[in-house]
């Protein structure tokens, strides 16, 4: 079915509409063989609060952006190659329901659908697209993923020293390796994580020690477990501002 739609006028028109919604700031999305599979609004868990984002699933990429005017204008376009994606379901808890993790080597995050049916459809379609891509390319699924950042609201004290309390002066920081919320003194070191940045990035002392001794996998927290065990923030305050984790540490 995807192959049949690839060169159809209807598919080309749909992709062109998505391009226009992102405007000049967005990257071109029309390439030979690309098919728009589906689209919809998902709630993305950002570092400060959950936020509504418009997602577009193509047969080779996942695109999302901030909603300026629903179905008319989006900004802050993000493009994720699907062959690097793996997804894991998240257990329901409180207001955060029907969620799953989208994990890639450069960025990982949690999203939530409005209903269980919608979640199932999204996950099934994403898995099918990834499977088809890997089958065609002969590549193996990616086994390296960036940590999912723990939201600010889940940590009132440093998650490493368990002593430093966060205040407007004592700011929260995120370790790029484990995703924990840590204080400044516990995250003064930097380490090169090539999949995330060409420059050394902030990591906590615990991960730095493990990385320095070659025990890299030990400091990668299992975020699906952490989401099922940690307190959740409210879904009621959803805004259209930038992704917090892209603009702060």
UniProtKB/TrEMBL annotation:
Residues 221-232 have a biased composition (Polar residues). One of its GO terms (cellular component) is endoplasmic reticulum. It is found in: Early endosome membrane; Endoplasmic reticulum. It is a peripheral membrane protein. One of its GO terms (biological process) is endosome to lysosome transport. Residues 238-249 have a biased composition (Acidic residues). Residues 221-249 are annotated as: Disordered. Signal peptide: none annotated. CDD domains: FYVE_PKHF2, PH_Phafin2-like. The keyword Ribosomal protein does not apply. PANTHER family: PLECKSTRIN HOMOLOGY DOMAIN-CONTAINING FAMILY F MEMBER 2, PLECKSTRIN HOMOLOGY DOMAIN-CONTAINING FAMILY F MEMBER 2-RELATED. This is Pleckstrin homology domain-containing family F member 2. It comes from Grallaria varia (variegated antpitta). The gene is Plekhf2.
